[in-house]
Model the fold of this input.
Amino acid sequence: MFIKKAKTFLLACLLAFALCALFTAKTFGQEQEVRYVDKTAEPISDGLTWETAYISLTQALSVANSNPGDWEIRVAQGTYHPKNEFASFRILNKPGQEAGDRIVLLGGFAGLQGANPDLRDPKVFTTILTGDTLGDDVDFGNCLSNQDGWKDQNRLNNSDTVVIVLNCGLGNRIDGFIIEGGNQGQVPFESKFAHGGGMYIADSSIDVVNCTFRFNVSGLPENVPVHNGLIGEGGGAYVSGGKLANGDVGFTRFINCTFHDNVSSRGGALAILNRSSEVTKVKVINSLFYDNQAIEMSTAVIKPGDDNDRLVQLPMKRQTP
Done:
């Protein structure tokens, strides 16, 4: 009798363990899909290995955005840009999104140009996401002493925003990229607002880690014809509050990031804004802000005050790397 009860108990434990493992894998994304991107790979590819890597980051993101699951995209060193001035690299809400559905975007791999493609060091194997679709921008230089870069007419063909994150749940991450050349505000939108040259985040939870935002512009006065006199906030990045699909409030973290030489009407580096009655949760951790410029207010960061319409500057010491 004792042995029979012991066997029954053991079987129950094994069943419980199996169900727990299945739940954990689904919830925390242990069944991970990995795709590779390397601009030096062969044009016809499936993205499953470095040797068959996608040459386009847009293609890899399209696959991940269109399919539920836990996705990791590994991007080799090099410069990548959207296909035209109206395109951006997008991380979007997945169809039928469930807990554990996420996209982790990792830059800084050696890729096919290295002896070991899996070797990762974003400082050595720089991976650049740029809005300069034609590669013809004038050297931006220091935006405080040189305005020729951000007034350059060649920026008219740049992407409005380099990276867009919309309606994404918990667990998403962008790690190890230089994000540059966004030119938000070149199209005269009816709203007269143009935000986030480097990155635009809305209604999402995401960690932005080890990224550098530089040479991005959003909305400038009418005397700068490149930008049509639009009001823009967050030259480097713009975060707008809102609820996720499950009702939680979005939470964005910038960790070990650098913002320099970004320009905007307001909040040269970063704008953190509430929308309607929704709260914007943003944390900036161990990050540098220097040589950013705003035409109207706050060269570094703007965020909501007690009044949603009041923009205040976060205490920020000017620093250099």
